[in-house]
Specification:
The chain is 14% helix and 48% strand. It is mostly beta strands and 221 residues long. It comes from Leptospira semungkisensis.
Length: 221
């Protein structure tokens, strides 16, 4: 499989060239274009309960689409719903935890399973379930805005809405941004995720809620 990510970081498009019989799995609705004779199969992912969790608690689609190239290969273009960045992760047997809406696609050697994130993720505003993306192969994640990798060594604090993904070697807890609830509620920062450990954290430079708030101010009453 060959790939190219163009128009970064604002309007990224993932272009894939698949060899004969090769497959790519994507979030439903991500396909922009594909060559003729490409086979498309729609599945619920990692079991019925996991699919339900993705749909109703993880903010993801109920289904995955799997695209398989014909005997002479094929091309396909994928993009997320929101304008932003796309990155490629070569997992090599590792696993990462991905926030709602940031999973875009992966090759056939990758598993995507909903994981209970605990009440801490619910209170953080990011959904009760996270997606565990693991296996051997490439995974592609998307964002709203640019994606910035951060190497965490010790402790690091991030606004919950800016999290894209993190390695499962990191632990996190949700807390107040300020020293008291007045600072949290009136300071505009809300709740934050406090990460600890050693590993990579990926964040997005913008959050959809910020754009929605800005747009709402422009609407007539």
């Amino acid at each position: 499989m060959q790939y190219q990510i163009t128009h970064k970081p604002s309007f990224s498009l993932l272009k894939l060239r698949l060899g004969p019989g090769q497959s790519i799995k994507s979030e439903a609705g991500a396909m922009v274009y594909m060559s003729s004779k490409m086979q498309v199969e729609t599945k619920m992912g990692s079991g019925f309960l996991s699919a339900l969790a993705r749909k109703f608690l993880g903010g993801e689609s109920f289904f995955f689409n799997t695209y398989t190239a014909p005997s002479d290969g094929g091309e396909i273009g994928l993009a997320p719903d929101l304008p932003g960045d796309i990155i490629e992760l070569d997992l090599n047997g590792k696993s990462v935890m991905v926030q709602s809406g940031s999973y875009l696609a992966s090759d056939s050697g990758i598993q995507v399973v909903s994981k209970f994130g605990g009440l801490r993720s619910l209170f953080g505003g990011e959904g009760l379930f996270l997606l565990e993306v693991s296996g051997s192969g490439k995974a592609f994640l998307s964002s709203y805005g640019a994606i910035v990798p951060i190497q965490v060594q010790g402790n690091y604090t991030v606004d919950t809405g800016h999290i894209v993904a993190f390695e499962n070697s990191l632990q996190f807890s949700v807390g107040r941004a300020g020293g008291n609830w007045k600072s949290t509620l009136l300071g505009g920062e809300g709740l934050v995720a406090n990460f600890s450990g050693n590993g990579t954290l990926w964040i997005q430079s913008r959050v959809p809620s910020g754009f929605i708030t800005w747009l709402t101010r422009l609407l007539p009453v």
